[in-house]
Amino acid sequence: MLGLIRAEALLFYAEVLRRKSILVTFSLFPYLLTLLILLIGSSAGSFNAFESKVGISPVPFFISSSFVLMVVLGVSDEILWRPIYNEEMGTSPYVVSSPSNPILRSLAIPIPRLSLTLVLGSTSVLPVLLYYFGSGFLLESISIMGLAALSGLALSSLAIAISGLATLWGESWRIIQVIRPLLFIFLGVFYPKHVMPTFARLISSLIPSSHTIEAIQTVLLGGSNILVPIGIGVALFMFYLPIGQKSLSIWERKKLRSGGIRT
Amino acid sequence: MRVVIEIFKAYLRTELIRNSGFLFGLLSLILWLLLFLTSIILFSSEEVDASMVSSHSMVAMAIFLSYSIATWDWAWEIRRLGFHGIMDYVITSGRDFLVIFLGLIPVSLIWFSASLLGSYVLLSLLISPPLISVVDLPTMLVGFLSLLLVLLGYSMILGGVTISTGTSGPVMEFLGWILPIATGGLTPLERMPHLVRSLALATPFSYPAEMIRYSLGLANPVLGIEKTIVLGITYSVSFFLLGIFFFKRQIRKVLIKGASIPSMY
């Protein structure tokens, strides 16, 4: 596993260092998303209305949510698109014939990427939350960054399961384009789980990261009961692991049978 | 003309017909809109007229969608042609590269109309049916034509930069987000801070949005409507010509030096 993580880290950091523009744009995205929502939101109503419904000012809420979204997106996108990426780059045959365990190979993907959480968090969540709540909120801000990284990791097993199963569809990128926003809606990152209708809340509860995101929102609202949602998130992550393993086997079998049909 | 029709048919099949592409694309778009709209509902209060909120949101979505088409359907397509090595065939065929755009634009317009319809239904369900009343049809037509010219110019500049330098996806994505926000695409210029307003007016992007909003009776242009129309037409035509000039220059460079291979993302 360590060898796989090292290989993934080497590739990832080489790419980041080669194209620093990605790092800069990535760091600006939480601000961009927050600005977009605040601009349209302020013309649709008021900050006070938001505060009375959610219990917190929209600025700290959306900067944290946008940060979490970027962290989770960075991990889930890399896993969901990896089979298609390998297909496009012509590396699929090497991946399929590799002796390494497929599930470990996929689980190694998010780990080096999560180090970006530190860069992204210290340029977005940390300064904005400290400005809003004062230096006394430092520990909470750091715990939000940690929980965001955990949210990315927790989603990885479900993302692996989806990425393999999506290949059952002829052009899997089409189905992934639909699944991505659906996942983010049910994560409750912009529209918290506690204000969702019951049916949506039930679906949301099946996604591991929705629980860790709930923990982030609890910290933002000044609560401390975060161990239960973290525990549920980790349990769900474990639950999806065997499904992910099975899903990757389906993908590999399909590749071996078809000999290179586009995923 | 035959080539344009064949290109149109090819894109129509690839993008909208094959493997229910239209359905999946529309579903994806509606879900992304839903992700952002649900958070905007949290700001709603009884003091603000819901139908006006819907109308403003509808215009914002229309502008955002059109910028998105220019970035992802037009500029990204040039990049995709380069990535898959198709561009070399287009160049060696001896046809003008712009013939691709002529075949692609009608497909984008079909997609744009369907997306607007989807946005209308979504806004009607979540907030209130948007009030669409055209108060000045000629200005509206000029506004949409200017928008088309500006976006074509923008996509050619972005596409030209891509084939000559191999720009990465996140940069394009960032541009696709920042432009509509910073240039008055999402909110009328009269509601923006003076500094942002001046910045927006220095670009060709703000004028079409101002004209469209005025023609729907949603906002008054900060420069007055006559001045906005004159400057808007001049700026959009110049920007479009600049785009063509820049793109052809990049193609000439590619012919001399060869194309840079853009990375996948």
What Rg of chain A do the Cα atoms give? 19 Å
The portion of residues forming beta strands of chain A comes to under 5%
Beta fraction of chain B: under 5%
Regions with little confidence, pLDDT below 50 for 5+ residues of chain B: none
> Number of helical runs of chain B?
10
Count of DSSP E strands of chain A?
0
The best one-word shape of chain A is globular
Task: Please state the average pLDDT score of chain B.
Answer: 83
Q: Largest inter-chain interface?
A: A-B, 47 and 41 residues
Distance between the termini of chain B: 34 Å
Count of folded domains of chain A: 1
What integer value in Å does the Rg of chain B equal? Answer: 19 Å
Kindly give the count of domains of chain B: 1
Count of beta strands of chain B = 0
Largest sheet of chain A: none
Helix content of chain B: over 70%
Biggest sheet character of chain B = none
Helices and strands, with pairings:
The complex is a heterodimer of chains A (263) and B (265).
Chain A: H1 2-18, H2 20-44, H3 47-54, H4 58-89, H5 92-97, H6 102-108, H7 110-113, H8 116-123, H9 125-133, H10 138-165, H11 172-187, H12 198-205, H13 208-220, H14 227-258
Helix pairs in contact in A: 1-2, 2-4, 4-9, 4-10, 4-11, 4-13, 9-10, 10-13, 10-14, 11-12, 13-14
Chain B: H1 2-17, H2 21-41, H3 50-83, H4 86-92, H5 99-126, H6 137-165, H7 169-182, H8 194-201, H9 206-215, H10 225-257
Task: Kindly describe this structure.
The complex is a heterodimer of chains A (263) and B (265). With 263 residues, chain A is mainly alpha-helical. Chain A has one domain (2-258). Chain A contains 14 helices and no strands. Chain A has helices at 2-18, 20-44, 47-54, 58-89, 92-97, 102-108, 110-113, 116-123, 125-133, 138-165, 172-187, 198-205, 208-220, 227-258. The model of chain A has no long low-confidence stretch (mean pLDDT 86). The two termini of chain B are 34 Å apart. The mean pLDDT of chain B is 83. Chain B has helices spanning 2-17, 21-41, 50-83, 86-92, 99-126, 137-165, 169-182, 194-201, 206-215, 225-257. By secondary structure, chain B is mainly alpha-helical. Chain B is built from ten helices and no strands. Chain A binds chain B through residues 19, 21-22, 25-26, 28-29, 32-33, 35-37, 39-50, 53-54, 58, 62, 65, 85, 88-89, 169-171, 174-175, 177-178, 180-182, 184-185, 190-191, 195, and chain B through 18-21, 24-25, 27-28, 31-32, 34-36, 38-45, 47-48, 53, 56-57, 60, 127, 168, 170-171, 173-174, 177-178, 181, 186-187, 191, 263-264.
